Amino acid sequence: MAQITPNHTLAVYGWAALDSSGKIVPYTFKRRENGVKDVTIKILYCGICHTDLHFARNDWGNTTYPVVPGHEITGVVTKVGSDVKGFKEGDRVGVGYLAASCLHCEYCKTDQENYCEKLQSTSNGVFWDGSITYGGYSKLLVADYRYVVHIPENLPMDAAAPLLCAGITVFNPLKDHGLVTSPGKKIGVVGLGGLGHVAVKFAKAFGHHVTVISTSPSKEAEAKQRLGAHDFILSSNVNQMQAAVRSLDFILDTVSGEHALLPILELLKVKGTLFIVGAPDKPFELPAFPLIFGKRSVKGGIIGGIKETQEMLDYCGKHNITCDIELITPDRVNEAMERLDKNDVRYRFVIDIASNSNNHPFI
Ligand SMILES: NC(=O)c1ccc[n+]([C@@H]2O[C@H](COP(=O)([O-])OP(=O)(O)OC[C@H]3O[C@@H](n4cnc5c(N)ncnc54)[C@H](O)[C@@H]3O)[C@@H](O)[C@H]2O)c1
Ligand SMILES: [Zn+2]
Ligand SMILES: [Zn+2]
Q1: What's the number of CA atoms in the CB half-sphere (13 Å) around residue 204?
Q2: What atom of ligand 1 comes closest to residue 341's alpha carbon?
Q3: 343: closest CA among 219, 226, 167, 210?
Q4: Which residues of 81-100 are buried (b: 16+ CB within 10 A; e: fewer)?
Q5: Residue 304 — pLDDT band, cuts 50, 70, 90?
Q6: Residue 194, Cα to own-chain centre: how many angstroms?
Q7: Portion of the chain with pLDDT greater than 70, in percent
Q8: Which Gene3D superfamilies has this protein been placed in (predicted)?
Q9: Contacts of 35 (CB under 8 A, 6+ apart)
């Protein structure tokens, strides 16, 4: 069992949405004191995942207000509990979507704690002690060390932050399907946003032929020139879609909004897999024919386990993989959320939490 620490005495300055307008405003709240298995982290950067926008606006109907979003966190350890192993003051660390899990179910025991039924999320969750979890749009985090990872020394803390969610979310399905170590497959990435652009980088680094499938014609040049994608399919262009039928081994769908699966499924070869990580608020229509005539699979997954998150970060350190980010000060979060909603970001906003744009009374 993770510890229970009811003493919420630490005043922390952060930013929260107070209602479904999603508007983010300064918000001061309390965190638990650093427990024996906790580390306290001075947050330096936090990525703006599309999930933050879903939470802020209650798109999925599960938001508890006020919500302090943020689960792509990098920072420096400032305090270490007596039972903590592997971390010391001054360490460069990261925290993603996972705040805690039961630690003894079959998934926790096999490094798949992201599938633990008792999973506690870093933001908009309910912790063991009944408190609401407040995320990384804040100056300081107290985290159970078993859900904290090390950021490789050579990676910049700002451009590494989105790896904590976007990175692991696309790394995991590629690894699960043997695609880290068997190059030469044809991989499709649907949606070229925060998750999608990291997926292109990983799939390329693993030696695959990468096709971006997007609704935005303007993304063709950038997908190819900036990210090195080999091919681009404009999903609204019937001829382009038709020409690519049965051409891909594996497709990662990172799209946040409603869209049809049928044309995407048809791009898969026989026995190909469509892996869904995007989370539109409306259910998909799943047609039977492209499945039965192509023996295709449709799967989904949430982030990845902690061990694999560290492995992914180490891989990124070794191969110098970071995210393409637009760094903003906290006072620009609302503008960033609006732009994220309109798909106007290349490819991830990251908040410079430690910047001095806001005067605040607490650390
Ligand atoms: N499964 C997981 O563990 C996990 C982890 C992180 C994020 N997510 C979810 O993944 C999705 C993507 O997250 P992100 O941070 O990359 O978002 P993003 O906004 O950066 O990227 C989403 C992409 O989808 C495209 N898009 C949006 N609506 C579309 C539509 N109707 N048709 C076609 N394209 C459309 C956008 O143009 C953009 O390129 C979100 O729903 C998010 O909640 C899931
Ligand atoms: Zn996320
Ligand atoms: Zn568990």
Answers
A1: 20
A2: 19
A3: 219
A4: beebeebeeebbbbbbbbbb
A5: very high
A6: 8
A7: 96
A8: Medium-chain alcohol dehydrogenases, catalytic domain, NAD(P)-binding Rossmann-like Domain
A9: 3, 5, 81, 142, 144
Note the pTM of the prediction, 2 decimals: 0.95
State which ligand 1 atom lies nearest to the alpha carbon of 235.
33
Identify which of 46, 50, 54 to mutate to test ligand 1's pocket (most ligand atoms within 8 A of the CB). 50
Residue minimizing CA distance to atom 11 of ligand 1: 278
Closest ligand relative to 168 C-alpha: 1
Ligand located closest to 260 CA: 1
The pLDDT assigned to 358 comes to 53
Please, which residues bridge with residue 336 across strands?
none
CA of 198 to the centre of ligand 3 (A): 28
Instruction: Report how far apart, in Å, the C-alpha atoms of 81 and of each of 3, 127, 145, 360 are.
Output: 12, 19, 9, 27
The 3-state DSSP class for residue 290 equals helix
Task: Report the separation in Å between the CA atom of 90 and the middle of ligand 3, taken as the mean of its atom positions.
Answer: 30
Q: How far away, in angstroms, is 117 Cα from ligand 3 center? A: 6
Distance CA 275, CA 331 (A): 36
- Digit-coded pLDDT (tens) for 179-196: 999 999 999 999 999 999
Residue 49 CA: nearest ligand 1 atom is 15
pLDDT digits (tens, 9 = 90+) for 130-142: 899 999 999 999 9
B/e letters for 289-323, b = 16+ CB within 10 Å, e = fewer, are: ebbeebebebeebebbbbebbbbbbebbbeeebbb
Residues with C-beta less than 6 Å from any ligand 1 atom: 49-51, 54, 165-166, 169, 191-196, 215, 254-259, 277-279, 302-303, 340, 343
Q: Strand 24-32 and strand 120-121: pairing?
A: unpaired
